[in-house]
Each structure stands twice: as C-alpha cells, then as structure tokens.
C-alpha cells in the first residue's frame, strides 16, 4: 500500500513536521481517553480549538453559523458523554444553557491548551492543507472565551511551536 502510494507520488524528503503533529494529535487522543475513563484529575482542564469546516466535524447548525471557521471548546466542569475514538472524539457540552452533542476529528485540531499546567500544542497540518496564517498562542483561545488570559511559557518542553523548527 505504501509502495503503491509512493509510485503515484514519489517522496523526495521526509516531512518530519507532519509526522510530529500526527504523533502529538495521538497524545491528545491518549489524554482524552484517560479523562474518558478516569475523569479530569486535579485542576486540569482543556481548551481545544478546531476548524469547524473540517470534514467530519459535527456541530448544531446555529453553532456552525456562529463559528464558521474555528471554535474553542472547554472541557472542565459542564461536559458529559465524552467518547474518544481513534479518529475523533464526541462530547455533550452546554452552549448558552442548552446541551448539544458535538463530534471533533483529531485532524481538525488547531490548538490544545491545559491552563492548569500552562501546556499548549499548536497544529498547522490538516490533511494536505498547511495553514499559512501566523500562529496564535494558546492564551488567545482563552481570551476568545472572555476569560482572563494566562501567559504561555516559552520554556522548552512547555509550548511546541513548529514554526521555529520547520525548515521552509
């Protein structure tokens, strides 16, 4: 299968950035699976930002109209029915006092942020699409929810930015 794909599209270099992002999306999946089984430990909570137009995203129509490009959700106190699958997660959240079930493919994620430990991941690859917009830090996602922003540490190992290591 891989060889047949390489015959159609010969690989001239390895795309380490895409490989790393795929692995980190797997880490987000593993974290959510742990939360699915055991609940959120301590003060941990997550802000997950995703592209709403990505194939497989399921949102109520009014939310799609309100967030046509990107949306940030919070997994903290008011969520239920978290179900984590290999390619996506689904959860029931409360929006303006009304519960809605949503489904989010891991490939649609643009940011993952856990403010309790000041940990953030930024993603730029979505299928064959590379986002060319400048990266926003994870605190911007928090500001978009009208919450006070917490600074994101620039310490190695805390925030992973692929802009800085990607060779163009």
What does this structure look like?
The protein is an alpha+beta fold and 168 residues long. It contains 4 helices and 10 strands; from the N terminus they run ααβαββββββββαβ. It has helices at 2-8, 16-38, 61-66, 138-144; strands spanning 46-51, 70-75, 79-84, 88-95, 98-105, 109-114, 119-122, 125-126, 129-130, 159-160. Strands 2-1-6-7-10 form a 5-stranded mixed β-sheet, sandwiched between helices. Strands 3-4-5 form a 3-stranded antiparallel β-sheet. The longest helix has 23 residues, at 16-38. The radius of gyration is 17 Å and the shape is globular. Residues 128-168 have low confidence and may be disordered.
Q: Which strand order do you get reading across the main beta sheet?
A: 2-1-6-7-10
> What distance lies between the first and last C-alpha atoms, to the nearest angstrom?
29 Å
Using the alpha-carbon principal axes, give the shape. Answer: globular
Helicity, as a percent range? 25-40%
Query: Number of helical segments?
Result: 4
Uncertain residue segments: 128-168
Rg result: 17 Å
**Secondary-structure-derived class:** alpha+beta
Oligomer: single chain
Secondary-structure element order, N to C: HHEHEEEEEEEEHE
Beta content:
25-35%
* Record field, number of beta strands: 10
Largest sheet: 5 strands, mixed
Mean pLDDT, as a whole number?
Answer: 77
């Amino acid at each position: 299968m891989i060889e047949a794909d390489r015959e159609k599209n010969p690989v001239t270099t390895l795309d380490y950035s895409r490989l790393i992002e795929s692995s980190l999306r797997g880490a987000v999946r593993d974290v959510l699976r742990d939360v699915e089984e055991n609940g959120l430990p301590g003060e941990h909570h997550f802000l997950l930002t995703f592209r709403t137009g990505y194939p497989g995203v399921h949102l109520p129509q009014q939310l799609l109209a309100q967030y046509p490009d990107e949306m940030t959700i919070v997994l903290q106190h008011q969520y239920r029915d978290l179900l984590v699958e290999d390619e996506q997660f689904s959860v029931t959240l409360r929006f303006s006092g009304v519960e809605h079930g949503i489904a989010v493919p891991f490939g649609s994620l643009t940011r993952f942020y856990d403010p309790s430990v000041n940990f953030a991941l930024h993603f730029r690859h979505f299928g064959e699409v590379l986002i060319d917009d400048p990266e926003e830090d994870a605190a911007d996602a928090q500001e978009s929810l009208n919450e006070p922003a917490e600074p994101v540490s620039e310490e190695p190992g805390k925030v992973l930015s692929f802009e800085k290591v990607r060779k163009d």
